[in-house]
Amino acid sequence: MSTDMTSMALAVPQSSGSLEAYIQSVNRIPMLTAEEEYNLAVRLTEEDDLEAARQLIMSHLRFVVHVARSYSGYGLPQADLIQEGNIGLMKAVRRFDPSVGVRLVSFAVHWIKAEIHEYVLKNWRMVKVATTKAQRKLFFNLRKMKKRLGWFTQDEVNTVAETLGVSTKEVMEMEARMSAHDQAFELSSDDDDAREGSTYSPAQYLEDKRSDLAEEVEQEQWQEHTQLRLLSAIKTLDERSQDIVRARWLDEENKTTLQELADKYQVSAERVRQLEANAMKKLRAAMA
Asked: Can you give the residue ranges of the RNA polymerase sigma-70 domain (predicted)?
Protein backbone atom coordinates (compact mmCIF):
# COMPACT_ATOMS: atom_id res chain seq x y z
CA MET A 1 0.00 0.00 0.00
CA SER A 2 1.47 3.39 -0.96
CA THR A 3 2.60 5.95 1.62
CA ASP A 4 0.11 8.52 0.29
CA MET A 5 -2.77 6.07 0.70
CA THR A 6 -1.67 5.20 4.20
CA SER A 7 -1.47 8.86 5.20
CA MET A 8 -4.86 9.53 3.67
CA ALA A 9 -6.64 6.68 5.43
CA LEU A 10 -5.04 7.37 8.81
CA ALA A 11 -5.52 11.13 8.82
CA VAL A 12 -8.04 11.08 11.66
CA PRO A 13 -8.20 14.45 13.50
CA GLN A 14 -7.73 14.36 17.27
CA SER A 15 -9.97 17.19 18.50
CA SER A 16 -13.66 16.43 18.93
CA GLY A 17 -14.71 19.16 16.48
CA SER A 18 -12.29 17.98 13.83
CA LEU A 19 -13.27 14.37 14.47
CA GLU A 20 -16.92 15.19 13.81
CA ALA A 21 -15.88 16.93 10.59
CA TYR A 22 -13.90 13.82 9.60
CA ILE A 23 -16.89 11.56 10.29
CA GLN A 24 -19.20 13.81 8.27
CA SER A 25 -16.64 13.83 5.46
CA VAL A 26 -16.31 10.04 5.22
CA ASN A 27 -20.10 9.64 5.42
CA ARG A 28 -20.40 11.79 2.29
CA ILE A 29 -18.19 9.46 0.27
CA PRO A 30 -20.51 7.41 -1.99
CA MET A 31 -20.81 3.70 -1.33
CA LEU A 32 -19.83 1.37 -4.15
CA THR A 33 -22.28 -0.93 -5.87
CA ALA A 34 -21.46 -4.63 -5.87
CA GLU A 35 -20.35 -4.38 -9.52
CA GLU A 36 -18.13 -1.34 -8.92
CA GLU A 37 -16.55 -3.01 -5.89
CA TYR A 38 -15.88 -6.22 -7.81
CA ASN A 39 -14.26 -4.40 -10.74
CA LEU A 40 -12.01 -2.36 -8.45
CA ALA A 41 -10.99 -5.47 -6.50
CA VAL A 42 -10.13 -7.28 -9.73
CA ARG A 43 -7.99 -4.33 -10.86
CA LEU A 44 -6.16 -4.37 -7.53
CA THR A 45 -5.67 -8.15 -7.54
CA GLU A 46 -4.64 -8.57 -11.16
CA GLU A 47 -2.94 -5.25 -11.93
CA ASP A 48 -1.87 -4.05 -8.46
CA ASP A 49 -3.82 -0.87 -9.22
CA LEU A 50 -3.31 1.44 -6.22
CA GLU A 51 -5.99 3.85 -7.40
CA ALA A 52 -8.48 0.98 -7.19
CA ALA A 53 -7.25 0.23 -3.67
CA ARG A 54 -7.66 3.90 -2.73
CA GLN A 55 -11.27 3.91 -3.91
CA LEU A 56 -12.03 0.70 -2.02
CA ILE A 57 -10.54 2.15 1.18
CA MET A 58 -12.22 5.55 0.89
CA SER A 59 -15.67 4.07 0.27
CA HIS A 60 -15.39 1.90 3.42
CA LEU A 61 -14.03 4.46 5.91
CA ARG A 62 -17.58 5.09 7.16
CA PHE A 63 -17.83 1.45 8.26
CA VAL A 64 -14.64 1.77 10.32
CA VAL A 65 -16.28 4.65 12.21
CA HIS A 66 -19.33 2.48 12.81
CA VAL A 67 -17.27 -0.40 14.20
CA ALA A 68 -15.09 1.91 16.34
CA ARG A 69 -18.18 3.36 18.02
CA SER A 70 -19.09 -0.06 19.39
CA TYR A 71 -15.87 0.04 21.47
CA SER A 72 -16.51 3.46 23.01
CA GLY A 73 -17.17 2.05 26.48
CA TYR A 74 -13.46 1.67 27.32
CA GLY A 75 -12.69 5.37 27.72
CA LEU A 76 -10.18 5.30 24.85
CA PRO A 77 -10.01 8.16 22.31
CA GLN A 78 -12.47 7.61 19.48
CA ALA A 79 -9.97 8.98 16.97
CA ASP A 80 -7.43 6.35 18.01
CA LEU A 81 -9.97 3.55 17.68
CA ILE A 82 -10.86 4.77 14.18
CA GLN A 83 -7.20 5.04 13.24
CA GLU A 84 -6.52 1.45 14.31
CA GLY A 85 -9.62 0.30 12.45
CA ASN A 86 -8.36 2.04 9.30
CA ILE A 87 -5.19 -0.03 9.51
CA GLY A 88 -7.31 -3.17 9.62
CA LEU A 89 -9.31 -1.93 6.62
CA MET A 90 -6.15 -1.46 4.55
CA LYS A 91 -4.97 -4.95 5.44
CA ALA A 92 -8.34 -6.33 4.42
CA VAL A 93 -8.32 -4.51 1.08
CA ARG A 94 -4.88 -5.92 0.30
CA ARG A 95 -6.05 -9.49 1.09
CA PHE A 96 -9.55 -9.30 -0.41
CA ASP A 97 -10.32 -11.92 -3.06
CA PRO A 98 -13.25 -10.81 -5.28
CA SER A 99 -13.66 -14.33 -6.70
CA VAL A 100 -15.00 -15.61 -3.36
CA GLY A 101 -18.29 -13.81 -4.00
CA VAL A 102 -18.72 -11.81 -0.77
CA ARG A 103 -18.83 -8.05 -0.28
CA LEU A 104 -15.71 -6.36 0.99
CA VAL A 105 -17.43 -5.05 4.14
CA SER A 106 -18.24 -8.62 5.26
CA PHE A 107 -14.59 -9.58 4.86
CA ALA A 108 -13.05 -6.36 6.18
CA VAL A 109 -15.05 -6.17 9.40
CA HIS A 110 -12.98 -9.01 10.90
CA TRP A 111 -9.69 -7.24 10.11
CA ILE A 112 -11.01 -3.93 11.43
CA LYS A 113 -12.11 -5.55 14.71
CA ALA A 114 -8.81 -7.41 15.06
CA GLU A 115 -6.79 -4.18 14.98
CA ILE A 116 -9.16 -2.45 17.39
CA HIS A 117 -9.11 -5.47 19.73
CA GLU A 118 -5.33 -5.36 19.89
CA TYR A 119 -5.34 -1.63 20.63
CA VAL A 120 -8.00 -2.02 23.37
CA LEU A 121 -6.10 -4.87 25.03
CA LYS A 122 -2.84 -2.91 25.02
CA ASN A 123 -4.29 0.30 26.36
CA TRP A 124 -7.51 -0.25 28.31
CA ARG A 125 -6.05 -1.63 31.54
CA MET A 126 -3.55 1.23 31.67
CA VAL A 127 -6.40 3.74 31.33
CA LYS A 128 -8.78 1.94 33.65
CA VAL A 129 -6.45 1.44 36.62
CA ALA A 130 -6.27 5.10 37.64
CA THR A 131 -8.75 7.54 36.12
CA THR A 132 -9.80 9.79 39.03
CA LYS A 133 -7.58 11.97 41.24
CA ALA A 134 -8.11 9.65 44.23
CA GLN A 135 -7.29 6.57 42.13
CA ARG A 136 -4.08 8.13 40.84
CA LYS A 137 -3.04 8.96 44.40
CA LEU A 138 -3.64 5.37 45.41
CA PHE A 139 -1.90 4.00 42.32
CA PHE A 140 1.38 5.78 43.17
CA ASN A 141 1.28 5.28 46.93
CA LEU A 142 -0.49 2.02 47.66
CA ARG A 143 2.42 -0.37 47.20
CA LYS A 144 4.91 1.51 49.34
CA MET A 145 2.36 1.75 52.17
CA LYS A 146 1.93 -2.04 52.41
CA LYS A 147 3.76 -3.67 55.28
CA ARG A 148 3.52 -7.22 53.96
CA LEU A 149 2.52 -9.39 51.00
CA GLY A 150 -1.12 -10.35 50.58
CA TRP A 151 -4.35 -8.42 50.92
CA PHE A 152 -4.86 -5.49 53.30
CA THR A 153 -6.55 -6.07 56.63
CA GLN A 154 -9.47 -3.81 57.48
CA ASP A 155 -7.25 -1.81 59.88
CA GLU A 156 -4.69 -1.28 57.10
CA VAL A 157 -7.43 -0.19 54.72
CA ASN A 158 -8.65 2.36 57.27
CA THR A 159 -5.11 3.66 57.84
CA VAL A 160 -4.38 4.10 54.12
CA ALA A 161 -7.72 5.79 53.52
CA GLU A 162 -7.14 8.26 56.36
CA THR A 163 -3.53 8.98 55.35
CA LEU A 164 -4.32 9.63 51.67
CA GLY A 165 -7.69 11.28 52.23
CA VAL A 166 -9.74 8.79 50.22
CA SER A 167 -12.57 6.41 51.04
CA THR A 168 -12.02 2.84 52.23
CA LYS A 169 -14.03 1.65 49.21
CA GLU A 170 -11.55 3.30 46.82
CA VAL A 171 -8.62 1.68 48.67
CA MET A 172 -10.12 -1.80 48.29
CA GLU A 173 -11.03 -1.22 44.62
CA MET A 174 -7.50 -0.10 43.76
CA GLU A 175 -6.00 -3.06 45.66
CA ALA A 176 -8.19 -5.40 43.64
CA ARG A 177 -7.23 -3.76 40.36
CA MET A 178 -3.50 -3.81 41.04
CA SER A 179 -3.61 -7.41 42.26
CA ALA A 180 -5.57 -8.68 39.27
CA HIS A 181 -3.99 -10.82 36.58
CA ASP A 182 -4.58 -10.39 32.88
CA GLN A 183 -6.70 -13.05 31.22
CA ALA A 184 -5.88 -14.62 27.88
CA PHE A 185 -7.55 -12.93 24.93
CA GLU A 186 -8.44 -16.27 23.33
CA LEU A 187 -8.71 -19.76 24.81
CA SER A 188 -5.66 -21.94 24.28
CA SER A 189 -6.00 -25.11 22.25
CA ASP A 190 -5.47 -27.32 25.31
CA ASP A 191 -7.94 -25.49 27.52
CA ASP A 192 -10.55 -27.79 29.09
CA ASP A 193 -13.41 -25.52 28.06
CA ALA A 194 -12.07 -25.38 24.50
CA ARG A 195 -12.01 -29.18 24.30
CA GLU A 196 -15.58 -29.32 25.55
CA GLY A 197 -16.74 -26.97 22.82
CA SER A 198 -17.27 -23.88 25.00
CA THR A 199 -17.45 -20.61 23.07
CA TYR A 200 -16.40 -18.36 25.96
CA SER A 201 -13.36 -16.15 25.51
CA PRO A 202 -12.72 -12.50 26.44
CA ALA A 203 -12.49 -11.55 22.75
CA GLN A 204 -16.24 -12.06 22.47
CA TYR A 205 -16.99 -9.39 25.05
CA LEU A 206 -14.80 -6.53 23.84
CA GLU A 207 -17.35 -5.24 21.38
CA ASP A 208 -20.82 -3.88 22.04
CA LYS A 209 -22.81 -6.23 19.78
CA ARG A 210 -26.15 -4.48 19.91
CA SER A 211 -25.85 -3.64 16.20
CA ASP A 212 -25.04 -5.74 13.15
CA LEU A 213 -22.79 -3.92 10.67
CA ALA A 214 -23.56 -6.14 7.68
CA GLU A 215 -27.30 -5.81 8.33
CA GLU A 216 -27.06 -2.02 8.63
CA VAL A 217 -25.05 -1.77 5.40
CA GLU A 218 -27.63 -3.87 3.59
CA GLN A 219 -30.45 -1.75 5.04
CA GLU A 220 -28.72 1.49 4.07
CA GLN A 221 -28.18 0.30 0.50
CA TRP A 222 -31.79 -0.90 0.27
CA GLN A 223 -33.04 2.49 1.48
CA GLU A 224 -30.87 4.25 -1.08
CA HIS A 225 -32.22 1.95 -3.83
CA THR A 226 -35.80 2.59 -2.70
CA GLN A 227 -35.26 6.35 -2.69
CA LEU A 228 -33.95 6.24 -6.25
CA ARG A 229 -37.00 4.23 -7.35
CA LEU A 230 -39.29 6.71 -5.61
CA LEU A 231 -37.67 9.70 -7.30
CA SER A 232 -37.96 7.99 -10.68
CA ALA A 233 -41.63 7.23 -10.03
CA ILE A 234 -42.35 10.84 -9.02
CA LYS A 235 -40.98 12.06 -12.33
CA THR A 236 -43.77 10.19 -14.13
CA LEU A 237 -46.37 12.48 -12.50
CA ASP A 238 -47.50 15.83 -13.87
CA GLU A 239 -45.87 18.93 -12.41
CA ARG A 240 -48.76 19.83 -10.09
CA SER A 241 -49.02 16.29 -8.69
CA GLN A 242 -45.26 16.22 -8.11
CA ASP A 243 -45.48 19.45 -6.13
CA ILE A 244 -48.38 18.15 -4.03
CA VAL A 245 -46.59 14.89 -3.17
CA ARG A 246 -43.37 16.68 -2.24
CA ALA A 247 -45.19 19.28 -0.15
CA ARG A 248 -47.37 16.73 1.64
CA TRP A 249 -44.99 13.78 2.07
CA LEU A 250 -41.35 14.62 1.37
CA ASP A 251 -40.83 17.97 3.05
CA GLU A 252 -40.10 16.87 6.63
CA GLU A 253 -39.40 20.33 8.04
CA ASN A 254 -42.45 22.21 6.79
CA LYS A 255 -45.29 20.02 5.56
CA THR A 256 -47.97 21.90 3.65
CA THR A 257 -51.68 21.64 4.49
CA LEU A 258 -54.41 20.83 1.98
CA GLN A 259 -55.81 24.33 2.33
CA GLU A 260 -52.45 25.96 1.61
CA LEU A 261 -52.13 23.95 -1.58
CA ALA A 262 -55.76 24.72 -2.45
CA ASP A 263 -55.02 28.46 -2.17
CA LYS A 264 -51.86 28.03 -4.26
CA TYR A 265 -53.65 26.28 -7.14
CA GLN A 266 -56.98 28.11 -6.76
CA VAL A 267 -59.00 24.91 -6.24
CA SER A 268 -60.85 23.39 -3.30
CA ALA A 269 -59.08 21.45 -0.54
CA GLU A 270 -61.13 18.40 -1.55
CA ARG A 271 -59.75 18.66 -5.10
CA VAL A 272 -56.20 18.74 -3.70
CA ARG A 273 -56.98 15.66 -1.63
CA GLN A 274 -58.22 13.87 -4.78
CA LEU A 275 -55.09 14.85 -6.71
CA GLU A 276 -52.94 13.63 -3.83
CA ALA A 277 -54.79 10.29 -3.66
CA ASN A 278 -54.46 9.75 -7.42
CA ALA A 279 -50.75 10.62 -7.30
CA MET A 280 -50.08 8.21 -4.45
CA LYS A 281 -51.96 5.45 -6.30
CA LYS A 282 -49.78 5.99 -9.39
CA LEU A 283 -46.60 5.95 -7.27
CA ARG A 284 -47.55 2.67 -5.61
CA ALA A 285 -48.23 1.12 -9.01
CA ALA A 286 -44.93 2.41 -10.41
CA MET A 287 -42.92 0.99 -7.48
CA ALA A 288 -44.75 -2.34 -7.21
From this structure: 80-93, 257-283
